[in-house]
Amino acid sequence: MIAITRRRLLGTGAFAASGLAIPGALRAAVDSTEGRPSLKDLARRKGIKFGTAVAAPQVLEPTDFTDLVEREVALIVPENEMKWFEMSPAQGVVNYELPDRMVDFAQAEGIVFRGHCLVWYWRTPWWFQKLPTRAEAEAALIDRVRSMTLRYAGRIDTWDVVNEAVEPKDGRADGLREAVFLKVLGPGYIDLAYHHARECDPKAALVYNDYDIEYDTPEHEAKRTAVLRFLERMKHDGVPLDRFGVQGHLTVGKMPFSETKFRRFLADVAGLGLHIMVTELDVTDELAPGDIPRRDQLVADEYSRFLAVALDEKAVDTLIPWGLSDRYSWIVRHEHAKEKWRTDGLDGRPLPFDAALQPKPAWTAIAHALDGAPSRS
Ligand code: XIL
Fold first, then answer.
1. Domains of the chain
2. What would the DSSP string read from start to end of 236-258?
3. How far are the Cα atoms of 135, 160, 193, 254 from residue 198, in angstroms, in the given order?
4. What's the average model confidence in pLDDT over 167-175?
5. What is the C-alpha to C-alpha distance for residues 181 and 198, in angstroms, rounded to an integer?
6. Is this prediction's pTM over 0.90?
7. Which of 34, 161, 323, 348 registers the highest number of CB atoms within 10 A of its CB?
């Protein structure tokens, strides 16, 4: 573990010019061309895979951003391109072009590809929601899972099979979200999807991915409890589930955090024999002051607080921010909840690199957290 007091600024190079501190113990890993280690190398030293979400236009043509992706990450996940709604505008029509090209890009670069996501209530095609019978809906769901997992079998390291199926606010005893699949097919849709995914791609690790479990609020506590019961039930029933994904959409200054409760939750999930991934990490700063150095430090502190606990749990073996650079973030594009938008008209600064692809204090926070993490091997 590196002590903050051992941080040093490098004397030369672009990294030093950015004014960021580099941990002293990391200097052995410093890349001589740019004066800083890559996050993927810092992660790899601990047995952790470091990745990012990307959108197709960001990687299919070579740019300064593709250079950054190739330098920094060992894994990519498509931000939207593999979602059912995006791929299938009408029944019987599936457009594989972008997912195919993204998987090809990753393979050519030696980058691991993560599949996201097969079944998600929020990005379900309209035509599915209008199918007249339960039998047709079940056949369509099975076809969605089987066609995707078969097509990319052997090229996907982890698949989010079902995304965000738990919502305690909906008041059901089983904690499940009252949304499209549950309404049409009942709770059995979940196990069905996992069994078909395993059968078609036995090598991919199968993930359940969800949000709002990090903070110390009654809502997050209820979500943790419901998710844990959900995972226990799946393991008990022999559903092929290998991993749990903690999305990690964080916010500066809004909610209290309990290291103890979050740590306990992760340990409980690990106790079920599941690996854990941080799958969509980013930090909104709508409550932070506009001043950039101050704001960037608050965002970095939020990363640090979360990662100090998350990476201390050895079952957590993958770390994926939801984008690398503020140039490309759903937060900056205002595609997330309106209450998370800044009201002063300034762009949010949620990710480890700024829009000019320079590392920010959030980069240092992630580097420190990786360096301080126990080794997984
Ligand atoms: C988001 C994308 O980033 C946006 O571009 C899109 O408009 C909506 O979806 N949880 C998930 C991700 O599992 O797929 C979501 O991604 C963010 C929340």
1. 4-372 (3.20.20.80)
2. HTT----EEEE--EEETTSS---
3. 22, 12, 9, 39
4. 97
5. 20
6. yes
7. 161
Count how many residues are written for the chain. Answer: 377
Of 229, 254, 253, 231, residue with least CA distance to 241: 231
Q: Residue 248 Cα, ligand 1 centroid: separation in angstroms?
A: 12
At position 195, the amino acid (one-letter code) is: H
SS (H, E, C) 56-102: HHHHCCCCHHHHHHHHHCCEEEECCCCCHHHHCCECCECCCHHHHHH
Predicted local confidence at residue 377, as pLDDT: 74
Taking only the tens place, the pLDDT of each residue in 63-101 is 999 999 999 999 999 999 999 999 999 999 999 999 999
Going by C-alpha positions, the residue among 121, 208, 129, 205 that lies closest to residue 170 is 121
Confidence of residue 230 (pLDDT cuts 50, 70, 90): very high
Which amino acid, 3? Answer: A
Look over the chain and give the mean of its residue pLDDT values, rounded to a whole number. Answer: 92
For range 205-229, the mean pLDDT: 98
| Nearest Cα residue to 222 out of 266, 268, 166, 272 | 166
What is the 80 CA–ligand 1 centroid distance (Å)?
7
